[in-house]
Amino acid sequence: MTETADLYEPLLADIRDLYEQVRRRTNLRGHEDEAVRTYRAALWKLKLKGQTLRYLGTTSTEFTVALVDDLVILAGNDGDFGAVAELLGRLAYHHAREIVPPAAFKRLESEDPELDSLDWYRMADLFDYLGLYDALRELIAKARDHIDGDVRGVVDAYPDV
Q1: Domains in the chain: how many in total?
Q2: pLDDT (tens digit, 9 = 90+) per residue, 108-126?
Q3: Taking 80 as the threshold, does the pLDDT of residue 64 lie above it?
Q4: Report field, pTM of the whole predicted structure over 0.85
Q5: Same domain, yes or no: 46 and 99
Q6: Range of the domain at 26
């Protein structure tokens, strides 16, 4: 095997394994929890994340709902924001309104040391993308009073809110 092939073989094996697990579940009835665990694990493997996000876009939105906390965290990453926004955009508006803001505010209020002002901007962008303007107004109000000046900058990004 060439050096390049050696580098890609573990990635290809993981992708084949993920697809084999999903293929075996052509009828997910009764296996939803197992499927959610599989998708969640794949979302947190760097080499499987993009493929998993794309695959979730072809499955039932039940999986998106079940993974909303994970997806909101990923939405804070520039590279993942678009795919996550599209996934959450597949939800019925009432579903998105019920589950996305609580997950986003839970994320923003967490003690995660990785959390920064970019997460606030991305959550504002996500609310705007999904048309969740009440949640966007709430986020702007919280940002206005935030101790971190970079977070307060979110207010300037949405002057009409």
Answers
A1: 2
A2: 999 999 999 999 999 999 9
A3: yes
A4: no
A5: no
A6: 1-55
